[in-house]
Design brief:
single chain; 2 domains; alpha+beta; rod-shaped; five-stranded antiparallel sheet; 5 strands
Length: about 110
């Protein structure tokens, strides 16, 4: 009778133990899903942005993060500052990282 009470209380040595790897499996699956749904696309988007910023050239029509449209007329400070023509006789200097998008076509703020 003592043995049956001992068995019902979970005192059996090998019966109550689970594989520790199986207990971490849901956590590992969640981390794997987060990597493929969040981190990997973000890293891919960052690489595309860096490629776009490194390919900036004189004459490109751009839009800054603040929404200013202009045309690149030059670079300063070791190509880290972009000089934009926004209108006739209006030039702005912005950081290269402040460029949000590039449009090869269009006049970018220059009047025709």
């Amino acid at each position: 009778m003592v043995e049956s009470l001992y068995a019902m209380a979970g005192g059996g040595g090998a019966q109550g133990q689970a594989n520790p790897l199986l207990s971490f499996l849901p956590l590992l699956l969640i981390l794997l899903i987060m990597y493929f749904l969040i981190m990997r696309p973000q890293a891919k988007k960052q690489k595309e942005r860096e490629k776009m910023l490194s390919a900036l050239q004189k004459g490109d029509s751009v839009v800054t993060i603040g929404g200013i449209h202009g045309k690149i007329i030059g670079f300063k400070q070791n190509n880290q500052v972009v000089v934009l023509r926004v209108d006739d006789k209006v030039k702005l200097e912005v950081d290269r990282s402040a460029i949000a998008s590039v449009s090869k076509s269009g006049n970018g703020g220059e009047k025709e």
